[in-house]
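Protocol step 4 of 5: obtain the predicted structure for the target chain.
Materials: sequence only (see below). No template structures provided, no constraints applied. The aim of this step is simply to have a reference model before the mutagenesis design in step 5. Sequence pasted as it appears in the construct record:
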Amino acid sequence: MTAYVALLRAVNVGGTGKLPMTDLKAMCEAAGLTQVRTYIASGNVVFTSEKSEAEVRAAIEAPLETYAGKPVGVLIRSAAEMDALVEANPFSDRPGNRTVALFVDAPLSQAVISAAKNVKDEEMRLGHRAIYISYGAGMADSRLSIPAAKAGTARNMNSVTKLAEMAKILSQQ
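Step 4 output (structure tokens):
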């Protein structure tokens, strides 16, 4: 059994007429995922499965598309990959709420960072299937635009650390 984290992209998981986390959890359980847990209302799910990463993604995306009436991107990471992402954070000395991991599925090159626009005091570093971004003065006034982000989803490092911890606990059960 592998412990995974699913990160939903571009879906509103709170509010009236949106996808409540209880419904998201139920969809994951109906897809055959086990020990399903959600974390804060921003599309984060931790679970175990014998399926591969691709099979898990497909199992989650299909009911989400039916629910939303359009494709909903889901990025999947194993517990080990989440743990490695936290350990490799080049901005670990900075506030976790001002540092994010931008998750993507495609391999990354330095060109991704070079293509960023409206860089002010943000710093970026490549990770494995992620871009770490430290927002110096904070995210509220940032106009940073990263073309590769269109296919990804970001979580602040406080959330990433918590999700990694949750997945690690599941992987040890």
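Step 4 remarks: The chain has two domains: 2-81+162-171, 87-156. The chain has a mean pLDDT of 91.
Proceed to step 5.
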